[in-house]
Amino acid sequence: PLTNCSSLRRMPIVLIETNVPEANIPSTFVNDVSAGVAASLGKSEDICLISVRGGANLIFGGSNDPAAFVKVMSIGRLGVEENKRHSQVISKLLEDRIGVSAT
Fold it and tell me: Which of 71, 77, 16 is nearest to 43 (CA)?
């Protein structure tokens, strides 16, 4: 549990919205994202906050194919090269676990 504001100030936050129905998202997906993002960011998983919301009213490129919107917030460890690594980690999880294509 968070016991003070210092944890909040350094907490990486990942928000994922997808049009994949909640029923089609494995219950362990959020845990997989948490572990992957923590490793990619080089931060402890116990300070990562991950939110996954399925069934969003979301289209991409005019298509209703599985899609996702991902927002990553972190103090430090974000930049052009770092973001490429984070995107690869998250995209692979989205594709492998819930069928959202990385292309």
Answer: 77
Which conformational region is residue 26 in: left (phi greater than 0), alpha (psi within -120 to 50 degrees), or beta? beta
Average pLDDT over residues 15-20: 98
- The rounded percent of the chain whose pLDDT value lies above 90 is 73
Phi and psi at residue 49, to the nearest 5°: -115, 120
Tokens linked to 19: 């049009």
Alpha helices, DSSP H only, in the chain? Answer: 5-10, 29-41, 80-98
Among 51, 42, 56, CA closest to 89: 42
Task: Kindly indicate the confidence band of residue 9, based on its pLDDT and cuts at 50, 70 and 90.
Answer: low
Q: Which two tokens stand for residue 10?
A: 């350094």
| pLDDT classification of 33: cutoffs 50, 70, 90 | very high
Task: Kindly list the catalytic residues.
Answer: 12
Between strands 13-18 and 49-53, the pairing is parallel
